[in-house]
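Consider what follows.

. . .
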Amino acid sequence: MLQKFYSKLEKLLKNDSRFIDREGDLLKSNVIDAAYKADKKLIEVLLSQKEFKNKFFSKIKDALVFNINDFVAYISDKNFLADSYTKYRNKIGLNIDEKFLNERNEVALVWPFKDCVLEGGMTKEDEKRKEIFFNEILAQDEIDKLFSPKVLTNWKRYTQKGEEKVKELKRDKDGTIRENLIIKGNNLLALHSLKQQFQNKVKLIYIDPPYNINGDFQYNDSFNHSTWLTFMKNRLEVARELLMDDGVIFVQCDDREHAYLKVLMDEVFKRENFISSMAIKVKAPSGVATGGLIFDIKENILIYGRNNKVEPYNNSVEKEVVNEKSKTIESYNLLFESEGEEGDIVGTFQTQTRKIEIRRMNDYKIEKINLKNVGSIENFYVKNFVKIFRTATLSGGIERKIRELIPDNGLFSYYHTPSKGKYKDQKMKYYVYKKEGILFLNENAEIKQNGRKKVVVKLEQISNIITKDLWQGIAGEGRVELKYGKKPEELLRLIIDLVTKNDDLVLDFFVGTGTTCTVAHKMGRQYVGVEQLDYGKNNVEVRLNNVLNGDQTGISKIVDWKGGGDFVYCELMKYNELFVKKIQKAKDTKTFLKIWEEMKKKSFLNYNVDIKKFDETIDEFKKLSLAKQKRTLFDLLNKNQLYVNLSEIKDKDFKVGEGDKKINKEFYKN
């Protein structure tokens, strides 16, 4: 009778496509999620059958109340829908008092998306998940093991001469490693491995993580969002520890998770350390209809400081060269030939910090520029760089007060000490002409060499909206490709120039094809890049080798890049990860069985796996679908042994070479 009830409920729920996977099996997690949300369609289906209505609903006066907890408990019961995969798994574990270890709750750490399975979030799975989360039951002493430093292997130094062995690592007088590093492997584990050497040493972190769109994370749609946020939270927490006190992190994302990521980063970096949310134009609206109401042309960069001590190094960008075609000459068209002499005080008032006196200027000489009579406009603006100005309306409390006290349209001066900005805490002299403020060209421009001649280049302060077409024509940058994910070198130049100086340390742990590291290298910054995925001929090390040899794409001409320098490459030493890769590639049962035989001899299995029991039930394993065979072998592996821990570097089972032992000792030393 009970089995009939089970079957009828299963059949009823399977009528809803949201609740079944690609193999037609019921996704318990999706049903449970719908129940917690009091999903209208689910409730209507349950009410349509008398036995389900009686079991899962209570009548209170004239109303029916859905007993959500009873329904969830029923669906969660291991005996409900125990398919062949579930039945099989329940046979292969160790047990105490007829209760499997993974059902005992004496010591448990429940990871929603524990990294080494969440690591798989960076690689694509072919099937829908049946789990809401990847849950792993760990012994308490295993927790620290996951995040302990890992053995680094396959060390190489790349220079213009080619590949060299790494014999030692460069350090500064304080013992800090001064190498450009590229690390291949799981970025969460790599970050924890970097923590010992680089905690509070990183000036800038820029990351361009997967955007949580179809193709980035192949989880149940209902849990895509929480999966991605958990994935990000784990990494942001350790990233914060690496930042200097005045360090800054830039995280690029699109609108799908922007608001939620902001809340997450408020939690990790503290809300008071939020600096800005920058909107960047990433493409131009096309003439082709997109099917949406609004054409999406922007992405976002969330910017946080480790604390609120962040000061910009260069918050201006080049706007245009001043010449006969420049718009600058239309506004900066007055020449301050002589300020004359300071005369009488025409007004005074008190601010919170100082007394301001407004003085009349006598015998001054100001004239409008007649462009027809100056000859070469480029030369004229260079020659008179410090004299050329424009006027602007006085605004703000102090300026409005000054305007009220000025008696006529003459030239006046006053002194003030700004509390922020470029001239913070400096006593500055300001001028007012015809009741408007004077803005000198040299305050918002630079003289630069342009071939054989000098020119004035107008600058524009970086704002939280960037409309310049930075993505235009970047396909060939670095001579590598990354479909949909490549970022322009000019964007990274603006960011790196904004908050770093020479030799500051820049970190990117979603390095992709290496735009961040490329720009940092060309700009003379130290960098650390971490990448898990393999892009083959488009790998970051390929691009950086192009940079060493004088790559002239991207920002090379702007920064006058000629080539040179070096970087060090290494990898997290894999162990069980090697078996993960083999399992992912396997296409048939024969290969899975071969992998299992190798796993028995060489892999680290979960502590609750009974090898003898597995072998006794191997015929049932063969009857499972290929997807479930694959998942079973994944479940058997100890996820804490995907990579080799530094503490086990001397263990003969891991076969760490003497060269790797030596350089790891060099890397991790205090």
